[in-house]
Amino acid sequence: MSEPFPHLSQPLDLGFTTLRNRVVMGSMHTGLEDRARDTGRLAEYFAERARGGTGLIITGGYSPNRTGWLLPFGASLTSEREARTHRRVTSAVQAAGGKIALQILHAGRYAYHPLSVSASTVKSPITPFRPRALSGRGIRATIADFARCAALARKAGYDGVEIMGSEGYLINQFLAARTNRRRDEWGGSWANRMRLPVEIVRQVRAAVGEDFIIVYRLSLLDLVPSGQSWDEVVELALAVQNAGATLINSGIGWHEARVPTIVTSVPRAAFADLTGKLRPHLSIPVIASNRINMPDVAEGVLARGEADLVSLARPLLADPEWVAKSTEGRADEINTCIACNQACLDHVFRHRTATCLVNPRAAHETQLVLRPATPPRRIAVVGAGPAGLAAATTLARRGHTVTLFEAAEEIGGQFNLAKRIPGKEEFHETVRYFARQLDLLGVSLRLGHRVDTSQLREDGFDEVLLATGVVPRTPAIPGVDHPTVLSYVDVLRGARVGRRVAVIGAGGIGFDVCEFLTSTDSSALDVKRWRADWGVGDPEMARGGVEGVTRAAPSSPRQVYLIQRKTSKMGAGLGKTSGWVHRTTLRNKQVEMITGAGYRRIDDEGLHLEVGAEQRVLAVDNVVVCTGQEPLRDLAGDLRAAGVRTHLVGGADVAAELDAKRAIDQATRLAITL
Ligand code: FAD
Ligand code: NAP
Ligand code: SF4
After folding, report:
1. What separation in Å is there between the alpha carbon of 569 and the centre of ligand 1?
2. For residue 631, how far is its CA from the centre of ligand 1 (angstroms)?
3. Which end of the chain is more exposed for a tag (fewer CB within 10 A), N or C?
């Protein structure tokens, strides 16, 4: 049988070593790097990905010295003692047939502590600390620290290092005029600004010898004003290659950029063409990254010659067996990263250990262990939303006999509504994944079956898990039964909606419904349209890809108001790394956001509001209610009264602040214990 993804499966000979395929696990900070006591967990996390076939793993960032810490006492590699701790990680990965490189990351002015340093004293907009400008001596010492860190990595058993030169960290800060105001040999002209990375690569190569992988992560597109020009990017890539880099990885956008680079609404492989633009200039292999989450996308990038390798970070959190499933013709079994950031990056930014919404075992492999069921029992799961699906598959994997009842004609629960939101199309992958798993695991699926207490009792299940979800809350507003009022469920299922709309409730669903109502088509899937919407131009014409580029004029088929009672910032509860994207999108679509509103009534005139001392009537065709949900668990009381062992998970348990992360995590943890 021919290889399903021949380019992806192809080994890559680097001369002194061979990578078994073209998949690199991109660097992703999990928080486990920061504490020596978590080394065992980190080793198992990486080993699982090595067993799953990943060609080259790159660790989260380790600083080469104290000033470069991301956080106070953050991960660093500065001594023989620390290097010995890393042996546990490298040997676990290599025993599993993998290769692993340590990322060396100096945070520069992105450091979240008062020791931060940079090229100049220009403060970053995303950290509170003004950096100290490194002296010439300090720069030379920093370069030596990079070289020492690389040499220690080699001693620790790593197969290589990645030098983090992108995303706005220290090296980027030297490269760009926006942050480098120096007048010495490290600033001013481009030749001076690029001296730091080239010297680092040169001295790292000298420290590690020839038979050691050096990946340089190069910022292809800064996405900030006064960033690098394309000519500078190419010149730097050549210089880094000549200084001894083995591979060049692609970095896209500084952390302070106001263009999203990895959230769900960014089209798949949206930036791979830039890696393709660089590749012909170089003789060393290049790696494409960002929003490459499925093997057909990765294969396309490689087949088109845009890159020699692809980097996936979050997709390997979501599924450690991504490579094996891809290369063995089992792509339909992949648990796809939906790019929500909810359990990975949003956790890291809140100083919590990263994990994954669709795979709560990620970075918790040593804790969430699936043991065979003793004895296997007959278990009913009611409701095939995210909670019920996670529970049913986990129980079946452990050997229980599982029957899954679903009232609707399809599995997925509210994910079938979520996937209709423009920019959230990825959510359909989770439903596809679970459908395939139910099949493989032999779960008995009863669709179109609203089960009741008597049937559950008659069937004599040993245990029942109620994952029946939620019902939308109807707020006590006079006129809420007016014919112009719709619930978000009606709207997302295709109800006719007029041209002027008021959306009540500005939680995650209110925001999503506004995106739905203001979109004309699936523009989010089209890279050209998406770039125009976000003001991203050709870097050959626009410095950093954004300088002098204006955003396309927004077009919305409707005039929409989004309203909340709270006086706090709209969307304050949305994810840290994605909330700003939703707010910006709606602002661009001229959605009027009204905070501090009191709802007086809804009638033929529209929605009557009180905003401070002002009375307003919004003359709208429809009012869409997105005011949260209530748990649906009417079966629980009778089942328990009848002595049936009954458990509640997901929205059926607690509807307040429910999201799929909590639903899947809670269901998985419960299913592991039954
Ligand atoms: P549900 O998904 O509601 O599933 C419950 C299931 O039980 C339903 O399929 C129902 O038909 C079935 N059922 C009920 N009673 C019975 C019965 N008696 N017999 C058989 N079956 C029954 N969450 C996020 O984390 N991130 C997001 O970006 C996100 N976006 C969203 C966007 C939208 C538009 C919506 C609507 C939701 C979004 N959510 C998001 C929320 C997320 O979908 C929910 O938190 C999650 O679906 C809750 O899972 P659940 O399994 O508890 O309930
Ligand atoms: P929600 O976040 O609880 O928001 C409901 C909103 O309705 C609140 O902001 C509240 O704002 C308002 N409200 C509540 N009760 C009301 C009442 N009686 N009368 C009038 N207004 C009322 O719920 P949701 O938007 O339905 O979302 C459900 C869950 O799905 C959320 O917890 C969310 O995490 C998840 N989700 C996440 C995303 C994401 O992008 N991460 C997207 C969609 C959904 P005021 O009280 O200020 O008016
Ligand atoms: Fe992907 Fe979301 Fe999981 Fe992060 S939490 S790895 S973005 S699915």
Report:
1. 26
2. 11
3. N
